[in-house]
Amino acid sequence: MVDDTAEVIPQWVLCTALPSEAAPLRKRLRRHGARLRSHSAWPGSVCARWHGEAVVLGTLGMRAARLREFDEFLAQWPPQRGMLLLGFAGGLVPTWRPGEIALATAVVDARANEGTEGTWHVPASAHALAQVAAARAGVSVKAARLLTHTHVITDPDIKATLAQRSGCDLVEMEAAPFVALAERHQLDWLCVRSVFDTAVERLPALERLAQARGLNVLRELAILASTQPRSFASLPRLARRSAACGRKLVEFADAFFAAVAENTLGRTQPEQSSDHD
Is the domain defined by 4-259 classed in CATH 3.30.310.80? Predict the structure, then answer.
């Protein structure tokens, strides 16, 4: 539920791919007593205060399908401090476990040519702030190279091949266009992912279900039950894992904005006058 509309200059823009990934973030804002208002320049987004920081939260769509309208929003309302992308990713190497939080040090576009083209490295200041936030809150994060692919990778053999070719740890579908847009607008950025599946897991083909809305969800469930009964039976387990990954992302975001607010207050505190002047 959104209270009303507003035009707010954001300090931060927080993005997810899907509304289901944004839902736990909205829930946490509500729990903090934040008033959620729809930002008039970005349909479907909300703006609120998170530990005092003005945040606009919106969705990019799977594969960043809504990137054009997000670009238009940034042209009118560039955030004063930076952009964060939160969501899920799949493991490419066996060292990653479900629920672990990955802080991207680099993002690689799988569609780019060989060489350095299509590779971005996280701004040092933003990365340092995220590490400080996680350490203060006791949130465990691991550095990772993210590979942005064009579709969901469900096959362990393909995951292993991608890991070898790219040197990346995790795979997802939105970071590269998100980062390219941030760089074009000269904005600091962070990509934070919660690991959903491991490198050795074979996921069911759930891409159509993930994008379904309303009655189409029931239709996709019926198709899955009739064509892939084993995959259908795994849905409750995957739903529990998705909820756990979402909670981990909320935990990080809460720690991040608390640390940002504390850092800002520390910089703006007036100097104490001396009694010995």
Answer: no
Tokens of 51: 């530990």
Find all residues with CB under 8 Å of 47, minimum gap 6, and list them: 6, 8, 10, 36, 37, 38, 39, 54, 55, 56, 57
Helix, coil or strand: residue 172 = strand
- Rounded to a whole number of angstroms, the CA Rg of the chain reads 20
Q: What is the pLDDT of residue 276?
A: 39
Can you tell me the mean pLDDT for 19-34?
88
What pLDDT shows up at residue 237? 85
Residue from 136, 244, 153, 144 nearest 190 by CA? 144
Query: Contact 176/198 with Cβ under 8 angstroms?
Result: no
Q: Which residues are CB-neighbours of 56 under 8 A, at least 6 positions away?
A: 8, 10, 12, 13, 14, 39, 42, 45, 46, 47, 77, 79
What residues does each domain of the chain span?
A: 4-259
Check residue 79 and give its pLDDT: 96
Both tokens of residue 29?
A: 């804002």
Helix, strand and coil percent figures for the chain, each rounded to 5: 45, 25, 35
* Cα separation values, 179 from 106, 149, 224, Å: 10, 14, 34
The CA distance from 220 to 207, in Å, is 10
